[in-house]
Amino acid sequence: MKKSLTLTFFTASVAIVCLSFISPKAEKEVQLTCNVNACDKVDSLYLYEFNGVNFKKAKTAPTTDWATYRFKLPASAPRFYYVGIDPNNMKPVILGTENSLTLNGSCAQFQGAQLPDSDLNRNYEVVKNKLNSHKNEFGQLLQQLQAADRQNNVDMVNAVIMKLSDLDKRRLSYLDSLKKTSPYLGKVAAINTYVSYQANGSPDMTELEHFATKYFQFVDWKDADYNYMPWVVEQMKSYVQTLAGVGFPDAVQVDFLDKILAQIPAESRTHLLAMGGIINGLQAAKSPILGTYAKRYIEKYQKKEPEAAAQVAQLLKMSGSFVSGGEAPDFTMNDRDGKPVKLSDFRGKVMLVDFWASWCGPCRRENPHVVELYHKYHSKGFDVLGVSLDKTREPWLAAIEKDGLTWNHVSDLKGWSNDAAQLYGVSSIPHTVLVDRDGKIIARNLRGEQLTAKLREILGE
């Protein structure tokens, strides 16, 4: 059961004016001159690059009058930069191919700046809005389809599938047209285009398998234009969050992610961005496999991107409550008799911390299996600590008695605000955390045969 539960690109009367032109002495050099309003005491503007984890200063433009700032950079294939004062106040821009650009806005709010004489940036805005429109329409149709399924309304289901098919055709047609008229923006569209299972799925795949294997089907990961495209991070993050959110087992998620990473040249900057997106997504999903990819990132990029690697290391340290191999955060909570019980009291045992509640049907259906495992392995050092998300005492105690749960139980009767559940980032139940004899997390959310197999591996038959 679950608990009840994107770059904007203002013209001011006195604007920032940024002019970009090619130096007559070096045809391959671009100079970006910014004449800025409302930037009193701002000594420098910065041109940033995004590496998937943090923003790095690529160029600095100092000033003597807090009005004029100049950058010089090489002409190149199109690539995203960010212009601004700091990472909290900057504007994404595509630079590299156009000889002259003008950026209009206010230094107090770089995010709202516009580039009216840049065909590429102006067209990007149009494309981005169109892609967002497609995504919103897709989401609405999926909601309609779910509603029709719940109502067993076959006619409505078929009507929605027809609409999905039409949307898919429009998305593919738009992608094809952009590839011809603006190849770079076509690549932006490619990483943002996903067609539905209902209209395009194969009968030998489930909808989830279709999503997992087809989400990036229009992307050529070897294309160097993705090296500096922040959409790699955004779309990989979205993909990862969905994989984690729909309940794919950890090992299956790793398999899907590794297959995508295998398609991306290992030493490319695209790979760096993809890894950043994966880590962002896993963190947002509180996924136990965060440690797997964080450790890979640190090992691979600690020399090339030391600041980013240090940031990922700090993230890993702070995420110990849900990362396999991390220290299980200790907590103290009262048992049924009002006596305080600490998780660390059980060191030396293999512990299953079982988050549940008397009102949770899936939890109650899982309880007989946990009872069976408890009786089988308790003599070998296995124990269970039940943490209830109930709000009232009587139903909690009655469920313990009725289901024959003879292990230790604690609760603060705060429901979803249970302190231990908050500490462990629990957003749905049943939710389990398996802890080893030294207090390290072995795995999270093991149930049924997965839990049986893991205990057999650790404790034998």
Q: Tell me which CATH architecture of the largest domain applies here.
A: 3-Layer(aba) Sandwich
Helix-strand makeup class: alpha+beta
Strand content: 15-25%
Distance between the termini: 31 Å
Q: Into how many domains do the coordinates divide?
A: 3
The largest sheet has its strands arranged as 14-13-12-15-16
Q: How would you portray this structure in words?
A:
By secondary structure, the chain is α+β, with helices and mostly antiparallel strands. The protein has helices at residues 119-150, 154-181, 183-190, 197-200, 207-214, 231-245, 250-263, 269-284, 290-301, 306-318, 361-377, 393-403, 419-423, 448-459; strands spanning 17-22, 29-35, 44-50, 55-62, 68-74, 79-86, 89-95, 104-106, 109-114, 332-334, 340-342, 350-356, 382-388, 408-410, 431-435, 441-444. The chain is built from 14 helices and 16 strands. The protein starts with 16 loop residues before the first strand and ends with a helix. Helix 2 runs antiparallel to helix 3 (183-190) and helix 6 (231-245) packs parallel to helix 8. The model is unreliable at 1-26 (pLDDT under 50). The protein has a five-stranded mixed beta sheet with strand order 14-13-12-15-16, with helices on one face. Strands 4-3-6-7 form a four-stranded antiparallel beta sheet, with no helix packed on it. Strands 1-2-5 form a three-stranded antiparallel beta sheet, with no helix packed on it.
